[in-house]
TrEMBL record:
Protein name: Frizzled-10-A
G-protein coupled receptors family 2 profile domain span: 286-600
Entry keyword Ligase: no
Organism: Trichinella murrelli
Compositional bias ranges of the Basic and acidic residues kind: 206-217
PROSITE patterns attached to this UniProt entry: FZ, G_PROTEIN_RECEP_F2_4
Location of the region described as Disordered in the Swiss-Prot/TrEMBL record: 195-217
Disulfide bridges in this chain: C87-C148, C95-C141, C132-C170, C163-C187
Keywords: Developmental protein, Disulfide bond, Membrane, Receptor, Transmembrane, Transmembrane helix
Length: 678
């Protein structure tokens, strides 16, 4: 007899006189009889009957008869509602492949339908997946969906030995988290083997059990100090215990389980200041690496933008998109510098309602993270669009013979395309919360663990822009090669050299840009797949840090039981991605590396800032020199008088009147060369 029935018997003896004994046990007998019609177990019916006896005896003597009738009527109504519950087929997914397929409800937990049973078993799924005990799933199914047979009125559950084996294997895991074994799964309430009532026992072999327990201790050596619920008090109630287990064991001690129902996903998020994939030395090196190249990129692109502002007429179409590319990478470098300024935790961590600090993942709660995400993604994608516009204007000028003025008329369209398309994609990512912080750099970017976000918003747009831009670039280069061959004997060697220099600069810049951009995309794809492989192995592996004996370099491995070791992440690839992302911006300043830029800044400092009249001759000569290609006759005025000049023009018109179309095309090609060399 269980502890509950013993306590009820003591209460009955204390309240029952000799004259009341008959009434009490008549009531108990009626409850037992009605319980059989309701298909309740003997244990349940006995407890219910004895509790009803106490409820009746606590009333006044004159009202005992009424209480007796009320209790009997209530129990009969319960029987009617149950309506002779019979066996039903098991529909709970976790228990469908049990050795039996019929069950009877309600179970010991009070569940009256299989939907509530399935919902209750969801809380135990982490324990089942970890396999702390070989018989855990069988035991849970026998409790929540006990076996039913028409030959017996009572459902059949597991034997007490099965419960004790499961408790012995899984209770240490719960104790690591400061949790007690649920009281509702107390093994004393289950029948012993070879006794009444009958019970089930899968009878596992001793060898398999010992092996399983050994593997369980190896895989589940979790630290209490790093547990996600280390500050929770032990609980004896089933719901809080199961939820705590589901929230922590499924992720591991370095992670925190976040359940966002509105987004319909469950995710394990890394805690801040945790060295999971990378060591502390690697993170410090990444910080120094970002500081160096972000500073160089900011200074280089900033100098390019200021040079453009000093003389906007120098950067006309089709070269002007290079200035906007420099502006985009200047903003990107600001994102890296902002991250370095505020620190690792302030830039890439968020505070949960429970007080835990985790890396930002699918959240807009960190304002600095959102700002760095916009600076990196929006301006990075905008630079790709401006590169596409650069190749298109290059083709229009070289291949279609468009003038600067004709291309400049499309500048408004260019700006709409270059700024609106990246803005729409950025807003979409912010609305869907598809951003996360990197463990290595704490920089926020597109969520690499989401295939739709990575390939739909990073790889896809860059691939499309690169493919179209390469077509324009090849067509423009072919046109410039043809123009160079046709003009070889019609223009001076100086202009021809300038044309070849221009072609070389355009080819080098365009090819380097598309190659470096594609390398960044490849690095992002590598980062995605390696992170997923490392994250998926967290249940079996424990990350270990050690140094190479010869080089002293810190190494990182993930030792897995029976599976060898998982290769450490190639931190060089992550650093290559950062380097190339900023090198493209540095490369955009190659267009201002010339003598004209030095003369322009000399003119600015000497005349505008210091007002030095002696230095005014320098800029004047620079202005004359820069326009000599457009007006070569200004360098040698007075060679021909007006009369001779008029006769020469008439003679040329008369002689070449039949070749007007050829002369017109020749003039257009000269204009193209002069516009690019300006």
């Amino acid at each position: 007899m269980s502890r509950e029935t013993t306590e009820i018997d003591a209460q009955i003896k204390g309240r029952t006189s000799k004259g009341r004994a008959v009434l009490s046990w008549l009531l108990a007998a009626s409850m037992t009889a009605t319980s059989r019609r309701c298909a309740l177990s003997t244990r349940q019916s006995l407890l219910l009957a004895r509790q009803s006896v106490i409820a009746t005896l606590e009333k006044k003597p004159m009202k005992k008869l009424y209480c007796f009738l009320i209790v009997v009527i209530c129990n009969l109504s319960i029987c009617t509602m149950s309506s002779f519950r019979s066996c039903e087929r098991i529909m709970v997914p976790l228990c469908k492949d049990m050795p039996y397929n019929l069950t009877r409800l309600p179970n010991l937990m009070g569940d009256t339908d299989q939907n509530s049973v399935a919902q209750s078993l969801l809380d135990f799924e982490p324990l089942v997946n970890i396999k702390c005990s070989k018989n855990l799933r069988f035991f849970l199914c026998s409790v929540f969906t006990p076996m039913c047979t028409e030959a017996m009125d009572e459902p059949i559950t597991s034997c007490r030995s099965v419960c004790q084996e499961v408790e012995r294997s899984c209770a240490p895991l719960l104790s690591n988290f400061g949790l007690a074994w649920p009281a509702l799964l107390n093994c004393s309430q289950f029948p012993a083997q070879n006794s009444e009532p009958p019970c089930m026992d899968p009878s596992p072999s001793k060898q398999k059990e010992d092996t399983l327990r050994k593997d369980s201790r190896t895989k589940l050596n979790l630290s209490k100090q790093t547990s996600a619920i280390d500050r929770m008090a032990p609980s004896s109630e089933f719901p809080s215990t199961a939820v705590a287990v589901a929230a922590s064991i499924s992720c591991g001690p370095q992670f925190v389980h976040i359940d966002r129902h509105e987004m319909q996903y469950h995710k394990c998020v890394l805690r801040c200041n945790q060295d999971w994939m990378f060591t502390e030395e690697q993170k410090n090196f990444a910080q120094v690496w970002m500081a160096i190249w972000a500073s160089v990129c900011f200074l280089s692109t900033g100098f390019t933008v200021m040079t453009f502002l000093l003389d906007t007429s120098r950067f006309t179409y089709p070269k002007r998109p290079i200035v906007f590319i420099a502006i985009c990478y200047c903003a990107t470098s600001v994102g890296y510098l902002l991250r370095l300024l505020v620190g690792r935790e302030a830039a890439g961590c968020q505070q949960l309602d429970s007080g835990q600090s985790v890396l930002v993942s699918h959240s807009l709660s960190n304002a600095v993270c959102v700002v760095t995400f916009i600076l990196l993604y929006y301006f990075g994608l905008a630079s790709a669009v401006w590169w596409l516009i650069l190749t298109m204007t290059w083709y229009l000028a070289a291949g279609r013979k468009w003038s600067q003025e004709a291309i400049a008329r499309l500048s408004s369209t260019f700006h709409i395309i270059a700024w609106v398309i990246p803005a729409s994609l950025t807003v979409t990512l912010l609305v869907t919360h598809e951003l996360e912080a990197s463990e290595l750099t704490s920089m926020c970017f597109v969520c690499l663990h989401s295939s739709s976000a990575l390939f739909g918003f990073v790889v896809g747009p860059v691939a499309v822009f690169s493919a179209i831009g390469i077509c324009f670039m090849v067509a423009g280069i072919v046109s410039m090669v043809r123009i160079s061959r046709e003009m070889r004997f019609r223009i001076c060697d100086t202009d021809l050299q300038k044309l070849r220099k221009l072609m070389t600069k355009v080819c080098v810049f365009s090819l380097l840009y598309v190659v470096l951009t594609l390398i960044v995309v490849v690095c992002s794809v590598y980062e995605k797949f390696f992170d997923e492989e490392w994250l998926s192995s967290q249940f079996e592996c424990r990350p270990q840090s050690f140094k190479d004996a010869t080089t002293g370099v810190g190494l990182r491995h993930c030792n897995m039981s029976g599976m060898g070791s998982l290769s450490p992440p190639a931190v060089e690839i992550y650093m290559l991605k950062v380097f190339i992302s900023l090198t493209v911006g540095i490369m955009s300043s190659m267009w201002i590396w010339s003598k004209k830029t030095l003369l322009m800044w000399h003119h600015f400092f000497c005349e505008k800032l210091f007002s030095n009249p002696v230095a005014k001759s320098g800029p004047a000569q620079y202005a004359q020199g820069s326009s000599s290609l457009h007006h070569p006759s200004q360098d040698r005025p007075g060679i021909l008088n007006p009369e001779v000049s008029a006769k020469v023009q008439q003679l040329i018109k008369k002689k070449f009147s039949t070749k007007s179309i050829t002369v017109h095309r020749f003039q257009r090609k000269i204009i193209v060369i002069r516009e690019y060399n300006n």
